[in-house]
From TrEMBL:
GO terms for biological process: carboxylic acid metabolic process. PANTHER family: PTHR42735, SPHINGOSINE-1-PHOSPHATE LYASE 1. Keywords: Lyase, Pyridoxal phosphate. It comes from the Bacteria. This is Aspartate aminotransferase family protein. One of its GO terms (molecular function) is carbon-carbon lyase activity. The modification N6-(pyridoxal phosphate)lysine is found at residue 306. Its cofactor is pyridoxal 5'-phosphate. The keyword Hydrolase does not apply. Coiled coil: none annotated. Belongs to the group II decarboxylase family.
Length: 465
């Protein structure tokens, strides 16, 4: 599997800054064309990147080179060796289960995101989300995903470094709302047993308790159990699109209706499939209603670094109303310095990962995301059929959003789990009802699915020997 971050070729002795820029006699550094695309002029971001490089880097780096403060690098410098060590470490993680779970687009798009991150991250504006740069990135990314989720005109989008941080922001806003409404703790949050434990972590930080309700026979939230779990202290109910543990989509519409009956905040956790779901209907995969057209949906979380193909480190929470999104904000003016408002858990956070997400959106657009959704739909169906064709194996949930779970039937259930977990080519093991889960990506090279199915057969054969 190719690396997510593309590395520029080794520099020649006359080149500066690890071969990313070529040093010219006039003291200017010019961006190398082959570190981004074979023909970068075809990229819609080419002009913007060139302006960024020449306007913000050439002036300072060129002056430093002329004044002898920076020496041109050569092949003998440790940079090449350092990249080689990083390559070796990353290649050690290229197990077969990772090869079939590629969530990164083609190399040229990956390189574009990398370059955009680098150039934005090195600029002083990268630390100020309210800067013109920050407004450009947040505005365009928010509009793209907000439109796909039918976010109302009065809605808002918040960004975090992960889906877990976005869950924290949602629970913080919900707790603030409950207190503002005159309610008093203790408060509780309800999720299915298949819901992500990030809710438990956020609840721990915020002094909330979590109630995990049982699943139905299809491994979705049991709505009857949900009704029984609700009391006057419940402030948030969450359903997943899909669950990380089984790949099942909870009955979002029914759960949102139940929450609405008691005026409870309902959150859709789309950490895994949130960037894939809006495109699946157009490629023939039926999903339950999940966006803001569903009455009772208060907020939706999406993991941009998963099926959004963005760099790791950026996720979004969409809020039906800006007024409730603002409840996550923390006043930080009680000191002698500048008045500030905290809108996330971390303090200083670079715009670089969001810039990478923005670059991917610019290049792929709806058409590109739809094409990848179609490939994922085909790959997940094919892999599920391969598993079912193995005598003694079963698929736990019909895959819809790239997540496939499988296990051996009794009596080999426990033996298979132990043997398959011991193999190098494996997936994530799930605790209940047992088995393994993999996420299927849009790319499929070198018969990856067939090889992985072969690993399953080999582990099962050991059980029967």
């Amino acid at each position: 599997m190719g690396m997510f971050f593309s590395r520029p070729p080794a520099p020649k002795p006359h080149e500066g800054i690890a071969g990313i820029f070529s040093f010219h006699s006039n003291g200017m550094f010019v961006r190398r064309t082959n570190c981004l695309l074979q023909d970068p002029s075809k990229s819609p971001l080419h002009g913007w990147l060139e302006e960024t490089v020449q306007g913000h880097i050439s002036e300072h780096v060129g002056r430093h080179a002329r004044e002898g403060l920076m020496k041109p690098m050569s092949l003998s410098d440790p940079v090449t060796e350092t990249f080689a060590r990083l390559d070796a470490a990353m290649e050690q993680d290229t197990t077969q289960w990772m090869r079939i779970t590629r969530l990164r687009p083609q190399d040229e798009v990956r390189g574009l995101a990398h370059d955009t991150m680098r150039h934005v991250g090195m600029h002083p504006s990268a630390m100020t989300w309210g800067s013109p740069l920050g407004q450009l990135l947040t505005g365009e990314v928010s509009r793209f995903w907000g439109n796909l989720y039918n976010l109302p005109a009065g809605g808002d989008v918040a960004y975090g470094s992960s889906s877990s941080e976005c869950i924290f922001l949602v629970l913080l806003a919900a707790r603030t709302k409950a207190l503002a409404d005159g309610r008093r703790p203790p408060f509780n949050v309800i999720r299915p047993t298949s819901g992500h434990p990030a809710f438990d972590k956020a609840a721990h930080y915020l002094g909330l308790s979590v109630r995990a309700v049982s699943l139905d026979e299809d491994l979705r939230c049991d709505t009857a159990a949900l009704r029984r779990a609700i009391d006057n202290d419940t402030i948030v109910i969450s359903g997943a699109l899909p669950t990380d543990s089984h790949g099942a989509c909870d009955p979002i519409g029914e759960m949102a209706a139940i929450a609405s009956e008691s005026d409870i905040w309902f959150h859709v956790d789309g950490a895994i499939g949130g960037c894939l779901a809006p495109f699946m209907d157009s490629v023939g995969v039926a999903l339950p209603a999940f966006d803001f057209t569903v009455p009772g949906v208060t907020s939706i979380g999406i993991g941009l670094h998963k099926y959004g193909y963005a760099p790791v480190g950026v996720a979004a929470a969409l809020f039906r109303e800006k007024s409730i999104a603002d409840l996550r904000l923390v006043d930080m003016s009680n000191w002698d310095g500048s008045a500030m408002t905290g809108d996330r858990v971390a303090g200083l956070r670079s715009l670089d990962t969001l810039a990478g997400a923005w670059a991917i959106v610019q290049v792929l657009g709806r058409e590109g995301y739809t094409a990848r959704a179609r490939a994922i739909a085909e790959n997940q169906k094919l892999f599920a059929e391969m598993v079912r064709d193995i005598a003694g194996m079963r698929v736990l949930v019909e895959p819809t959003l790239g997540v496939v779970t499988f296990d051996a039937v009794a009596p080999q259930h426990r033996d298979f789990a132990a043997r398959f977990a011991a193999r190098r080519h494996r997936g994530k093991q799930i605790q209940s009802p047992g088995g393994f889960v993999v996420c299927i990506g849009p790319e499929r090279d070198d018969d990856d699915l067939e090889r992985y199915a072969g690993e399953i057969r080999a582990a099962l054969a050991q059980c029967n020997s």
